[in-house]
Amino acid sequence: MHATFLLYLTAKHALGEINELNCVQNSSEIRTNWTREEAEALYNLPFNDLLFKAHCVHREHFDPNEVQQSQLLSIKTGGCPEDCAYCSQSARNNTELSASKMLEVQMVLEEAKKAKESGATRYCMGAAWRSPKDRDMRAIEMMVEGVKELGMESCMTLGMLTPEQILRLKDAGLDYYNHNIDTSERYYSEIITTRKFSDRIDTLNLVKEAGIKVCSGGIVGMGEKDMDRLDMLVSLATLDEHPDSVPINMLIPIEGTPLQDAEPVDPIDFVRLIAVARIMMPKSHVRLSAGRTEMSDETQAMSFFAGANSIFKGDTLLTTDNPEDSKDAALFKRLGIRPMGLKSCATAHEPAE
């Protein structure tokens, strides 16, 4: 971001005159009828104009200096029958990752307790399945119940679900269900052939109908075009209700997968995408997910300004590396960012008078 603009923001804020920067309150209408043309128009704005617009929307609904922290654990690793081209856990990819059995409930809850002690407010559990078997459901329910007893939000990502399984998760108290759409409908078959894009949308709709909050986003850097990235956002922003959380993953190329030689994403393009996501889905938590190990502090700082307000903490995301807690803490201190409390996670920020 232009240094002069940053200095100007800092000076105005110090004088208590941040609202004089022409942020118009109550200007971000919640819409579910976005078009790609509108998304492209936003994406192609001059960079500073786009970021300023996104930041105003962000400031209207959230405390701009708070970031929600989740922690992710793989409760069942490897051996997945899906052929996702990016995934180290696909049995069809030659990544030499051995399949494991599902972790014991007590082990999962011990890790959840550690996550809470380190500042996480949400505990996310992922299993490398196309869909869970009914015999696994009781253990999963016990994990959800245990996480809730710790006073944390619970999230699961288990693949596709039957209506009966969704109701069991609801009854166990599950807060969030993660099911990423990954990319655009047009590009989807280039990445995954073992299921359809519509299968993803159907699962999201079933989860939402059951009263469980939706966590859904995608991955950039898989060889897709800009229009695919925008179409992915449009698909999420035109659901009957926007996802409560929108994780934006930057691909980590993994040796042995078809995408091992994928070209890295341009940081400015990535920040533009974060800004468009914030504008189109004003009340969603937009999460910087996989790929933060490859992001500079400056890229993350611009992303937070553009409306990202959630991260995964902890050294590992399922099977890939993540920045150490100490590095995140140092960055938060430099930026004046506070970890978001559980109450703030559940409700959108009310702007100051």
From TrEMBL:
Co-factor(s): [2Fe-2S] cluster; [4Fe-4S] cluster
Source organism of this protein record: Pseudovibrio denitrificans
Name of the protein this chain belongs to: Biotin synthase
Cofactor note: Binds 1 [2Fe-2S] cluster. The cluster is coordinated with 3 cysteines and 1 arginine.
A Pfam family hit: BATS
CDD domains named among the record's database cross-references: Radical_SAM
InterPro entries on file: Aldolase_TIM (IPR013785), BATS_dom (IPR010722), Biotin_synth/BioAB (IPR002684), Biotin_synthase (IPR024177), Elp3/MiaA/NifB-like_rSAM (IPR006638), rSAM (IPR007197), rSAM_sf (IPR058240)
HAMAP family: BioB
GO biological process terms on file: biotin biosynthetic process
Record keywords, A-Z: 2Fe-2S, 4Fe-4S, Biotin biosynthesis, Iron, Iron-sulfur, Metal-binding, S-adenosyl-L-methionine, Transferase
Alphabetical list of PANTHER family matching this protein: BIOTIN SYNTHASE, BIOTIN SYNTHASE, MITOCHONDRIAL
Domain Radical SAM core: 65-283
